[in-house]
Design a protein that fits this description.
The protein has about 160 residues and is an alpha+beta fold. The chain has helices at about 50-65, 70-80, 85-90, 95-100, 110-120, 125-130, 135-140, 145-155; strands at about 10-20, 25-40, 45-50.
Length: about 160
């Protein structure tokens, strides 16, 4: 609920954030967080605004070790590449990256590990380029190898976290 009726009271409420175990079969922790909300004066019911839901989701993700949308934006900016170029590098769809960067979705656990490794400089762009399929069809479709080599020659290369 983003726009409650005018007569609703803006309040702050404490909500629990349940942090699952890595296997998803149990609860690792429960954290209490204060978030903005609205109270219906007639019923006394409390409604969480979109902002509150985003706060709760971000806290859960942080405690689970998931990369945030802000970190994804900073990673792409640091690598100096477009969404299209980064998607070709990671071999994912452009809409997927857009959903991650806007916070509508989160990367899978395995993709999160790859993104964290790239962000922390544990793997490099040249290493990722070396992992791409060695087919002309992939090279023509993505163009990432050509983009990398052009940027490398011009000094505007995609960079790893270690070289910043």
């Amino acid at each position: 609920m983003s726009n409650p009726p005018n007569n609703w009271e803006a309040i702050e409420t404490e909500e629990e954030v349940v942090i699952p175990t890595y296997d998803g079969k149990g609860i690792a922790d429960v954290i209490k967080v204060k978030v903005p909300a609205f109270r219906d004066p007639k019923t006394g019911e409390v409604y969480l605004a979109e902002k509150a839901l985003q706060i709760l989701d971000d806290i859960k993700a942080r405690h689970m070790g998931l990369i945030s949308r802000e970190e994804l934006k900073l990673l792409r900016a640091r690598l100096r590449c477009t969404q299209k170029e980064l998607c070709a590098l990671l071999q994912i769809g452009e809409k997927t990256w857009t959903r991650w960067e806007t916070g509508r979705e989160r990367p899978s656990r395995s993709m999160n590990l790859l993104l964290r490794a790239l962000n922390e400089g544990r793997i490099s762009v040249p290493w990722l380029l070396a992992q791409r399929p060695k087919t002309k069809q992939f090279e023509q479709k993505s163009g990432i190898g050509r983009i990398w080599h052009v940027r490398q020659r011009s000094g505007k290369k995609l960079i790893s976290a270690q070289s910043t």
